[in-house]
TrEMBL record:
Residues 12-130 form the Purine catabolism PurC-like domain. It comes from Metabacillus herbersteinensis. Signal peptide: none annotated. It comes from the Bacteria. Gene3D superfamilies: PucR C-terminal helix-turn-helix domain. This is PucR family transcriptional regulator. InterPro entries: CdaR-like_regulators (IPR051448), PucR_C-HTH_dom (IPR025736), PucR_C-HTH_sf (IPR042070), PucR_dom (IPR012914). The lineage of its organism: Bacteria, Bacillati, Bacillota, Bacilli, Bacillales.
Amino acid sequence: MKDYSPITVINVLSRKHFEQTIVIAGNDGLGRQIKWVHVVEVTNIRKLLNGHELILTTGVSWKETTDICLSFLQQLIDSNASGLCVEMGTHTSTIPKEMIEHADKHQFPIIIFQKEVPFVEITQDIHTYLINQQYKMISDLEQYAQSLNKKLLTTDHYHEILQFFQQTLDTQVIFRLNEHDMEYFPNCSKKEKEKWQKLIKHKELLKTNSFGSASVQILGHEYAEVMILSDNQTLNEFDFLLLDRTSTALAQHLLRDLYVGEKKRIQDSEWILDWLNGQHTNEGILEYLLDQEVRTNIEGGVVLVYKYTSSKQKTALDSNYFKLLFRTVFEQQGFTAFLTEKSDGFIFILLNRRSMKTWKQRLSSGIERMRESEFIKKQNASHIKIGVGKFVESLNEIHKSYLTAEETVRIQKKMGVVKPHYFYEELHLFRLISIMNKQVDLREFVLEYLHPIFEYDKRTNGKLLETLRIYLACNGSKQETAKRLFIVRQTLYHRIGKIEKLLGEDFMTPEKRVAIEFMLLTYDYLLPIEQREINVELFNRT
């Protein structure tokens, strides 16, 4: 580890021109960092400082007045100055006791020169040191970056980058890929690993100068984390700059690996299609997963179908980028993804690596993160359909999840739901309607129950269908129904009276009410959303 420790007040005391100095206050603050030296001979200094300045003064503006001295000192403390150096004899002969006590209280160093000193030479000396140190640090950082770039061209594994980083720093480096165990460079004993893990778990116990971490970002999401820790050395600015460069290099290397892996997965697409069609045994699937180096602690799986309906959208969609984004998001949610691409979208097999109790919640979070990404927002969301099939515990039943995922998308297209139901298990009655519609003509059933309402609304624009929907949704509460329809109760009573005449006074009895509600859902399913106005002739032709 190269020493780029910041220059402090105590370091300055050993330099030229500081031989005849005495620290009269703030000994506990001698470790304050110095970033610049400033000569000040005015009392209003607050707006002139940026922090970490060592102040040189003759005290000519004080006139040894206690109030002015304390005001001047407080401004330095508030501005986070490093310390105050006063030349005694020329304009100032004493430092007020109150000023010394106040500086001690705030651990702010006050240093006195016992004889006249050249302020110009002091500032030149310290500034030269600071500039040279900064230049050397930038030069070494550039040299490290060049070496890192060369490694990126030849390295086969990210371990080589981390080993190079550790050898440069000569401190403990820890790396963690999402959903993977921590890796240690250099490797250490189990006892040492437990010590580091304990420190990382309680980061608030670590001093800020002994721990550092950087996120490895891929496609706008955290993919990994690099950490540096030291229990016997102080980490400096140079160490943190190296950490930043290394995390960027790791992101480039891992992204390259992901693209290469994506190309390989395309070759596996035919095998995955057979899997989706139920042509593989459980033993064959497990063997395939081992070949893909997938952990065997799989707790079931589910299929997600992602479809887009616009041809322009299809040509604009960067398939590789989308697939990498998808994998990154759902890996973080505890899924291993396998996919195949079709002409109208993608099919993802998501293998669950965590508790089955939380799979749906985690999958929902992943879908929302995808929809909120800038990449997806650029697509026309109204032309995107996402369907999640039934969750299966046995991997040789993935084809069942695939069929139900496709059915979910078909129902979504029919319903045109503003807030889509992504999950097959949330479709409930719509699943039953879809099955029944394949066997019988449901339009006759709908008209048998609702034809009088259709005819009345068509003839009078009476809004009885809307009233019926809301009245049923409110469980027969007239007050709530009137509120949701924005009408007075008298108007509602009139409409309900009309509904009773058309459907029968028993329309709210349990069995008939269930049938009517079912027919309303069936009507929505059968009639396209853009044509969902009361039009009996159109409905008859649908």
